[in-house]
Amino acid sequence: MNRVVTIKDLVGMDIRGFHLNRLIGAGSYGAVYESSSGSERIAVKASVREWDVLNEAAALQRLFYCQYTPQYYFHEETTTPDGILHTIGQELLGPDLETIRRSVPWQAIKRPTLVRIAWQALSCLEASLFHPLQPIVSQSRSLTLGWPITIWMTMVI
Ligand SMILES: Nc1ncnc2c1ncn2[C@@H]1O[C@H](COP(=O)(O)OP(=O)(O)OP(=O)(O)O)[C@@H](O)[C@H]1O
C-alpha cells in the first residue's frame, strides 16, 4: 500500500461494520476517520505499520478505565489488494486544541481553560505511571486524553 497517498483515502470503506465517513486527520503513522454504524459514531485509526498500531491498541487497553484516554473498541486486520491494513476502533473525541485555538476570534486559549488542560495532562501522566507502559511504549508516543477535546501529550519513557 502506498503509505503517503492511500492511507488517507479510505473514505467509503467498511471496517468491522463501521463505515468510514470522513478523514479527521493524519499523524506520523496513520490516518483517523470519523466512522459510523447506525447511530453509533466512533473514530477508526488506520495504518500499515502493524507494530505501532499494536502498541497503541495495547496502551489503550491498559488505560481502559482511565477517564483521560479514549475508550478502546477493537483492533482489526483487513487484507486489501495493497497489503494488510491495521485499524483501531476507538471513542470519537472532539477537535484537538490547535483546531480550537484557531477557531476562536482571539486565536488563544484563555487561562482558566489552560489550567484545566494542564490538570488533565498531569492526571493522564499520573494514570500512565500507575499502569506501567514501558514494555509497550519504548519511545516517543502520543495518547489522546480529555473530553470533549483532544489533547495530545508526548510521553517519553
Ligand atoms: N479518537 C479520536 N477522536 C477524534 N479525533 C482523533 C482521535 N484520535 C486522533 N484524532 C485526531 O486525528 C488526527 C491524527 O491523529 P494521529 O493520532 O494519527 O496523529 P497525531 O497524534 O496528530 O500525530 P503523531 O502520530 O505524529 O503524534 C489528529 O488531529 C487527532 O486530533
From TrEMBL:
InterPro entries: Kinase-like_dom_sf, Protein_kinase_ATP_BS
Binding site for ATP: 45
PROSITE patterns according to UniProt: PROTEIN_KINASE_ATP
Top-rank taxon: Eukaryota
Presence of the UniProt keyword Nucleotide-binding in the record: yes
One term of GO molecular function: ATP binding
Keyword Lyase attributed: no
Record-annotated membrane-spanning stretches: none
Keyword terms, alphabetized: ATP-binding, Nucleotide-binding
Protein name: Protein kinase domain-containing protein
The organism of origin for this protein: Caenorhabditis nigoni
Organism lineage: Eukaryota, Metazoa, Ecdysozoa, Nematoda, Chromadorea
